[in-house]
Amino acid sequence: MTLAVGIGSFLFHTFAERWSLYADVIPITVFIYAYLVLALRRFVGLGRGPALAVTAAFFIFNLVFAPALRAVIGADPLASLNGSESYFPAALALLAIGTWLVTGRAGSRPGRALLVGAAVFVVSLTFRTLDNAVCGTLPFGTHFVWHTLNGVLLAILLRAAIVGGPRRG
User: Fold this and answer.
1) Which of 29, 61, 119, 140 is most open to solvent, judged by the fewest CB atoms within 10 Å of its CB?
2) Are the CB atoms for 118 and 111 separated by under 8 Å?
């Protein structure tokens, strides 16, 4: 899945067509939801049904988050976010699950990893958000930092999945 994320991103940034946008967005979306199920099952200890139910609720939250944010603060302030608001729910999920794990299980290794991942993701989102605003000053912009830090985030999450938590069938 991480290879598909990298290939999709490369394709979109190389061709910038509708099909390459889907090649970029679909693997990222699948990774987010698949990792949520994995985290809920492996780290939190939920069974398949409850993990899928929480993931379905998260899906619905994702669908309503950006429109609700627009309704509350208006479209103009969101324009300055450069589309980053669509990633806020994933950052919130990392923060919520990481916090729950760390506070519920003293010394939770996966929880600490998810919190570090959330911090990396917030910094990454900051660089993504600032990209358009600084392009006039910085010729290369900051979008490459977004991609670099997302690679770090994926490494953190994959390591947590490999070494953390009980294995479930």
Assistant:
1) 140
2) no
